[in-house]
Design goal:
Layout (H helix, E strand, L loop, with lengths): L15 H7 L2 H17 L6 H25 L1 H4 L17 H22 L2 H22 L6 H5 L1 H4 L1 H10 L4 H24 L1 H7 L4 H5 L1 H20 L9 H23 L3 H40 L1
Helix pairs in contact: 1-3, 2-3, 2-9, 2-15, 3-5, 3-6, 3-9, 5-6, 6-9, 9-10, 10-13, 10-15, 13-14, 14-15
């Protein structure tokens, strides 16, 4: 959805880097890590070539979601400090180009995953893209402060897609990995929204701090963090993670909770923004490390098991 604010004189031809930016590469790296960790931790195995096709399809599907999101949100992106430098607001890519690019990537990634890997994974990837675009971006984001809570499911699907690529089904373990990201998303984004509140208010996006106030947002961040930490530890108890994962999840969870408490207690000016930023950036590191440890530990166990045979 592109207004005049999101339009510019398209004097420059889009470059490769512009299209890469459309795909939100930082988000893609997290999608790749979480999906790959689930693929390695899942029972069974894939031929390396099929495994590469699976993870590439999931990555491209995530990129498609990013491009379609930027196409629809070009009007508000142009008026927010955090997003004003994206390719559409800067006039590097047109709305039609972004829409075509995202659609081709979405269809191509789903069909490739379905045909060459399995249709359970393909259907889950299609659900992920559709949920992010139609449920979160088009329906929830501009209408309700619950946008991040419900819409966060889209970002939580990649481990389930990766698991299904190997096993062809959905399991308690893959649902648990989904829940980790699902519960992580609200405190992660609300920490950002605390110090970017004016941005969201200016463009009319009803993020929780805009609608319910800063105090309620801090309370909700702490509440979700309290639920997140034990869920993130749980993979150890269902055989997904070992002792190393348990140790990392406990230590990282303790730090996450400590920062959430700091955010809850710090309510004044710049210091409040500072601790919100600390939680936001640590939350990214938290999720990366959890899934990186899960991936490495599962890979080591596979190697040791293969060596013992």
């Amino acid at each position: 959805m592109q207004s005049e604010a999101g339009q510019a004189d398209f004097l420059l031809e889009p470059s490769v880097s512009d299209y890469v930016q459309l795909m939100k590469p930082r988000v893609m790296t997290l999608v790749i890590l979480t999906a790959l960790a689930a693929m390695v931790a899942a029972p069974g195995s894939l031929h390396p070539v099929i495994g590469f096709i699976a993870i590439l399809s999931i990555a491209i599907g995530a990129g498609a979601s990013g491009a379609l999101n930027m196409w629809y949100d070009a009007d508000i992106d142009a008026r927010m400090a955090r997003t004003a430098a994206r390719p559409l607001p800067r006039g590097r890519v047109s709305g039609d180009e972004a829409l075509s690019f995202g659609t081709v990537l979405a269809v191509g990634s789903v069909m490739t995953l379905g045909v060459l890997v399995n249709w359970t994974a393909g259907a889950l990837l299609a659900l992920t893209i559709a949920f992010y675009m139609f449920v979160y971006t088009m329906w929830l984001k501009r209408r309700t402060p619950h946008n991040i809570v419900i819409g966060g499911a889209a970002g939580a699907f990649p481990p389930m897609v990766g698991w299904a690529a190997v096993t062809g089904d959905i399991s308690i373990q893959s649902i648990l990995l989904f829940l980790i990201i699902f519960m992580w998303t609200p405190p992660h984004f609300w920490a950002l929204a605390l110090y970017r509140c004016r941005d969201y208010e200016r463009v009319g996006v009803p993020m929780l701090p805009v609608v319910a106030g800063l105090a309620e947002t801090r309370r909700q961040i702490l509440l979700y963090s309290v639920f997140l930490v034990p869920i993130a530890i749980a993979p150890y108890f269902v055989g997904l993670g070992g002792v190393t994962y348990l140790a990392f999840s406990v230590v990282l969870g303790a730090i996450f909770l400590w920062l959430a408490v700091k955010v809850y207690r710090t309510t004044e000016g710049r210091e409040a923004d500072k601790v919100a930023k600390q939680l936001f950036w640590f939350s990214i590191l938290y999720l990366y490390l959890l899934f990186a440890v899960l991936l490495v530990e599962a890979a080591v166990m596979r190697y040791l098991h293969a060596g013992a045979m």
